[in-house]
Design a protein that fits this description.
Elements (H helix, E strand, L loop, with lengths): L6 H10 L1 E4 L5 H17 L6 E3 L4 E4 L6 H7 L2 H11 L3 E11 L7 E4 L7 E2 L4 E7 L10 E4 L18 H5 L8 E4 L6 E5 L4 E3 L8 E10 L3 E2 L34
Antiparallel strand pairs: 1-10, 2-3, 3-4, 4-12, 5-11, 6-13, 7-10, 7-12, 8-9, 8-11
The chain binds 2-oxoglutaric acid.
Amino acid sequence: MDTGISEQMLDEYRHNGIIKVEQVITREEAAHYREVTLQLLESTPKGGPVNYAKAFHQYVDVWRDNDMLQSLTLHPKVGAIAEQLAGIPMRLWHDHTLAKEPSKAQPTAFHQDQIKWPFAKPRHTLSAWIALQDTPVERGCMSFIAGSHEVEDLPNIGTGDQERWKVEKPDLEWWPRLTVPLKAGDCTFHNGMIMHAAGANLTQEWRVAHVVILVDREAAYSGQEHVVTDSLGLEAGQRMPDDRFPPVEKYSVKG
Ligand SMILES: O=C(O)CCC(=O)C(=O)O
């Protein structure tokens, strides 16, 4: 598949830990998926799968509950770009909707993702963050600390814990930062180790992101607690089961 990823973009990803890919889906597709997502959030009863927090409302593994959103999560282009950037075969780990409420959603604090996930030394993890509407700075686009995917000694920082990263590693405040506004259908791919955050939503519109997370296909389950794996009865050290965590090469198969 022609993913449109050039050698220069690959170098940029390796160097900074993040790249922007324009129009991974079209504006029209983004508008459609946004509508589906907002309807799903609205029709999901309180106490159900949506976690409501000050920074965003989060629906984990939404691909398993909604066939239309499944087609976005298992989008062949997203999978192909992920494998190209990682340089190894990858599988879906999970997806999530991250929706910031109009006017009142707070910033998402700087954190790394991979430390939150139950894998023993995966060779690569990454997220595709797809904007389902225009997402300028004021609507809560993401910022990344360029090159911080090489930093390995940080603790697990919560997405609401605003000042913690500065306490843990004060010099990071002075590293170059990339703030990446996205148009509807644009996407950032970020390394699971990069420090990243998102701004508050100061606009009158929801900020809806569909985030697809992929992991090294060979990664072993570590046994660390995680909402996606806790109920699956996996043994620490085993490979992630293909039927539940589809490898990119098998993306036509439903989980
Ligand atoms: O969208 C956000 O507010 C944060 C997203 C994020 O942390 C992620 O996709 O890893």
